[in-house]
Design a protein that fits this description.
Blueprint lengths: L5 E7 L12 H15 L6 E9 L16 H29 L2 E8 L2 H12 L3 E6 L4 H7 L2 H8 L4 E5 L13
Parallel strand pairs: 1-2, 1-4, 2-3, 4-5
Helix pairs in contact: 3-5
Length: 175
């Protein structure tokens, strides 16, 4: 009798540092930790579920300093935002395939804390793994934390992975 693989959802996001089109430090660390400490060489025992939540600005625009002169400019902007998320997921899916662990990846739009919890309810993973930026108390009051919300509200066990001290930028909000 073959048993089902352990399904681990890893929420991933893009770097908040301007000009960086790659995974955030925290989500990359959480993903790497999952592969190194949990999956190890037992690739057939796990399935990695990669979720990226695209955050749309209040006005729906991510590029506030851009000039839009035609309807095609808006289409290009939407395609650009979509491709950013696809490139992010491609990075993580490629890593999974390199070591031979099964995975699925998808993108949702909305507030990350709400969408992650909704997707946990829908998909029912065995474990949710999140990166943590390590914000101080003052920053948490104004920004809040996705990981803190998910620890309280997700309908499965949640594991938060801190960044390594040498990976923390001077402003912890940068990720």
């Amino acid at each position: 009798m073959e048993r089902e693989p352990t399904r681990v959802m890893v929420a991933v996001n893009e770097s908040a540092i301007k000009g960086k089109a790659h995974p955030s430090i925290s989500s990359k660390r959480a993903f790497e930790w999952t592969l190194e400490k949990m999956v190890r060489s037992n690739t057939s025992d796990f399935k990695i579920l990669l979720l990226h939540v695209h955050v749309v600005d209040e006005d729906g625009f991510d590029e506030v300093d851009s000039i839009y002169a035609s309807p095609d400019d808006f289409k290009d902007m939407r395609e650009s935002n979509k491709s950013k998320g696809l490139h992010l997921l491609e990075f993580f899916v490629t890593k999974c395939h390199e070591i031979g662990v099964s995975c699925e990846a998808w993108i949702k739009k909305g507030d990350p804390k709400d969408v992650i919890c909704q997707e946990v309810s829908r998909v029912r993973p065995d474990l949710l793994v999140l990166g943590s930026r390590g914000l101080g108390r003052f920053q948490k009051v104004f920004v809040g934390t996705v990981s803190g919300f998910c620890v309280k509200h997700a309908e499965c066990p949640v594991l938060t992975i801190k960044r390594n001290a040498d990976e923390t930028p001077s402003d912890p909000a940068d990720d």
